[in-house]
Amino acid sequence: MNFSEIIEKDRRFLLHPYDSSVNPIDVLPVKGGGKEFLYLTDGTILIDGMSSWWSVIHGYNNKYINDALKSQIDKISHVMFGGLTHEPAVKLAENLYKISSCHFDKFFFCDSGSVSVEVAVKMAFQYHMAQGNKYKSKILSFCGAYHGDTFMAMSLCDPINSMHKEFANVLHKNIFAPRPKSKFDDIYENDHLQVEEILEKHSDEIAAVIIEPIVQGAGGMWLYHPEFLNKLRELCDRYSILLIFDEVATGFGRTGKMFAFEHSNIIPDIICLGKAITGGYMSFAAVGTTQKVIDVVCSESGPGAFMHGPTFMANPLACECANASITLLKSYDTQKVMSFLQNTMKKYFFEAKEFDFVKDVRVLGSIGVIELKEYINLRTITPKFVQRGVWVRPFKNLVYIMPPYIICEDSLKKLCKAVLESIWEEFSKK
Ligand SMILES: Cc1ncc(COP(=O)(O)O)c(C=O)c1O
Predict the structure, then answer these.
(1) 156-176 pLDDT per residue, tens
(2) SS3 of 218, please?
(3) Is residue 346 among the annotated active site residues?
(4) d(CA 310, ligand 1 centre) in Å
(5) Could you tell me which of 320, 367, 308, 250 has the C-alpha nearest to residue 69?
(6) Rounded to the nearest whole angstrom, what is the distance from the C-alpha of residue 301 to the centroid of ligand 1?
(7) Residue 165 pLDDT
(8) 247 phi and psi, to 5 degrees?
(9) CATH top-level class for 333-401+420-430?
């Protein structure tokens, strides 16, 4: 199919995320990829600034991961996990155990980031139910949070600035605290006091606190102070509430540490991992927890087992893909890669602080964010990025990049410059 045929049939048969079917935004047909580049069907080459939404950390068409998948496909692509097991899953659990500093003893493999949130929350509810506590039926989440598209995940997203408000009457009712306002590298302003107040009143009904550690992603690309996490741990312990870290976006090096919780001094009881777990090759996720939690969840006072089991749980192809991705990740000089990415993005993006249409600029690890004073029109800004040979997908008033870790210096500079020039062209004349 040629470029226009793909577009025509796409419009005829497909829906795209959060887009109208009546008046859809233009889409660009991709025919391939290599390293940090996307190859379009019409011959255009774009530098990818998005890592396909935090996931393609090693770039596209990585030979090492391709070979691991080809080798696994000749052995077995899928097998049920009830009553059976396999080496790729066992290896992956051990790999995750080791790269998370041996903090999480048990892993549950599932299909996607959203499902991992469902699994984590279910685990927390079951933990309290097994101790005879049926009244802990709510989760404490935060304004500005994003945890996914499934129903429990939606009910944990920001209650006002997310799709939450469209579905408010059908969603599980959870409890929300203000987002931590102290910036990542600023002075800590006791943001936890409001959480403490809520817990004092509602700890009887709260099973767990869930948070995206350090970076609130799709809810606003907000980078907050690590001390907040230390304080959350203290509060959760005081009130016998579980602490869940949703590291679906931040896991596997994105914030400059293997996991974002490493910026703090504590560990959560449950962790959700997804996106980059397979190097962005396929949908897959993991939930890790401690022996202490799982012993209670599986105790004889309840059903005696964790009550979840998706068909494609621990899919061998996905597990082997994740093993290959972790091997690659461990082979990098992470400190060097991250300081190159962070320093380059800071050098360019901090120039935007001078633009009068810019509200804030934030950079951490391989995440660069420019927050504008007004909303961005995707229909007018996207062609400006594409003309300059880059792929960037802003949302609301946020232009952000999170390139694949293997991006070369020339491409990263070109990407940063293209962002600055495009927003300047779009907003400076207004
Ligand atoms: C923090 C966080 N949790 C959960 C999800 C949902 O993951 P998925 O889109 O794989 O279902 C996302 C997706 O952006 C996310 O950023």
Answers:
(1) 999 998 878 899 899 999 999
(2) coil
(3) no
(4) 18
(5) 320
(6) 33
(7) 82
(8) -105, 25
(9) alpha beta
